[in-house]
Amino acid sequence: MGSDKDALSWLDDRESERRAAGLRRELRPRTPATGLIDLASNDYLGLVRHPDVIDGAIASLRRWGTGSTGSRLVTGSTTEHALLESELAEFVGAEAGLVFASGYAANLGAVTALAGKGSLVVSDAGSHASLVDACRLSRARVQVTPHGDLGAIEAALRDRSEERALVLTDSVFSADGDLAPLREMHRLVRRYAAVLVVDEAHGIGVRGSGGRGLVHELGLEGQEDVVVTATLSKSLASQGGVVLASERVCAHLVDTARTFIFDTGLAPAAVGAARAALGVLRREPYRAQAVLDRAADIARIAGVEVPPSAVVSVILGDPQRAFDAAAACRENGLSVGCFRPPSVPEGTSRLRLTARANLTAAELTTIEHVLDDVLSASAT
Ligand SMILES: Cc1ncc(COP(=O)(O)O)c(C=O)c1O
């Protein structure tokens, strides 16, 4: 072979294509105090700087050190990991829990351990990227069904030749903030002897009584054919992920989930922070309803439908238009999310505004002024 051609020159071609399509992503510097009103983060309950949560992280850090030092199966599992698991399980009404190093790893671990060659995985078209990747890694036959299409899920389950089947969905979809029809999906998995895996990343802390999640809200908690996954990085103001399921499922994951076995255990400080954040949420359950109330305020200001979650999407269509509007928001004191393909379908680039339980009246007034200006300028 041998050539003096740069083996990575194709990267420059792709970069030019992305630039022309308005799809370059940039890592903007972040400073501890930006002075911006935060409508971009997933710190839904406003707990990342809560003194109890910081103290929880520091106490764990002092006791256990900075790192977990290895897979929990190799260097041992701390009492704090076990407490976090039982506290989370108790909170959402599950029998048991298993903590992973991230929500991404929890989804990969759960799906690959519960599906495999010879099984079927049915996944909603709006499922999070981590569930999409889990499908790819599972080696199962994968059928992606149109968003929220119960008929398509039923047909896939009914017509399958495989004995085992999993149905995957987010409870609250991260881009549009809409809810999955979980009760109906559960009826289908029951009817067709399948298992429902529900990613509650955006549901815990927001939906259900005191933030127990949508599965709990709909009375599906504790059912063995419902496996809940979640991240600790949103409402719980930390880092990490968890699978909340029956003892039997969690034991199976300890033995077979590769992202549990071959990944370093969740860092002690993250465990301490998540436990403390859960403690705050238990003591102050009104925070969950406050997130929904603030999301309704933001939606009214932006002139879009009130969402059933913390996520307010203002669809602008063109990626460059969304990028420019997000930049204008920042220049005027608002940090907002800007979602473009491949995070969202073509033609639906948007501002993604996330509500926080502790947004103040003064902040809402600023949000109103800035959004009015930016959205009317963007429309012209
Ligand atoms: C729906 C959903 N699932 C999973 C994840 C991944 O969680 P983590 O960031 O903890 O890896 C995210 C985003 O972070 C998400 O939005």
Secondary-structure element sequence?
A: HEHHHEHEHEHEHEHEEHHHHEHEEH
| Count of strand segments | 11
Main beta-sheet annotation = 7 strands, mixed
Spatial arrangement of strands, main beta sheet: 2-8-7-6-5-3-4
Strand content: 15-25%
Bound molecules: pyridoxal-5'-phosphate
Assembly level: single chain
Shape: globular
- Helix content class: 40-55%
What is the CATH topology of the largest domain?
A: Aspartate Aminotransferase, domain 2
CATH superfamily of the largest domain: Type I PLP-dependent aspartate aminotransferase-like (Major domain)
The CATH class of the largest domain is Alpha Beta
Domain count, please report it.
2
Distance between the termini: 55 Å
CATH architecture call of the largest domain: 3-Layer(aba) Sandwich
Uncertain segments of ≥5 residues (pLDDT<50)? none
What is the CA-atom radius of gyration, in angstroms? 21 Å
User: What is the average of the pLDDT values?
Assistant: 96
Cofactor: pyridoxal 5'-phosphate
Enzyme class: transferase
Family: Belongs to the class-II pyridoxal-phosphate-dependent aminotransferase family. BioF subfamily.
EC number: 2.3.1.47
